[in-house]
Amino acid sequence: MEKHLYEILVPTMSNEGKPYRTRYHKVWDSKVREISKGLTILTPVKGQWISTAGDLYVERMIPVRLLCTSDEINKIVDMTMVYYNQLAVLAYKISSEVILKHKANG
Questions:
Q1: pTM for this model (two decimals)
Q2: 27 lies in a domain?
């Protein structure tokens, strides 16, 4: 399967308003690495969204970039929804053209 560059938004706060600790995020990082073999964690950004019930959520989110297949990003979204107990998780394809080169051994 072809790999693409995706970005997923990870929450910084629980639904109860408590911040997630770094060690909690690191467990998620490990789970993602098992699926996609790597990730790039960006600086948190401010987000606002309105739920299907009409509630406004204002929260900081952590953009995380992944090189993976569409099946893998769907597994990551599903795992993220459960792990962070989210009402919704947003992930999107950034690019379908990816160049990844490895240094030759020797």
A1: 0.90
A2: yes
CA distance 62 to 9: 5
pLDDT per residue over 8-56, tens digit each?
999 999 988 899 999 999 999 999 999 999 999 999 999 998 988 998 9
CB 48 within 8 A of CB 34: no
Question: Which is nearest to 2 in space by CA: 101, 73, 90, 80?
Answer: 73
Assign residue 86 the CATH number of its domain: 3.30.70.120
- What is d(CA 73, CA 69) in angstroms, rounded to the nearest whole number? 6
Determine the length of the chain. Answer: 106
Tokens 């987000």 identify what position? 47
| Any domain includes 17 | yes
Q: Total structural domains in the chain?
A: 1
Please give the Cα distance from 75 to 49 (Å, whole number). 23
40, 62 contact by CB (below 8 A): no
Residue 37: which domain range? 4-95
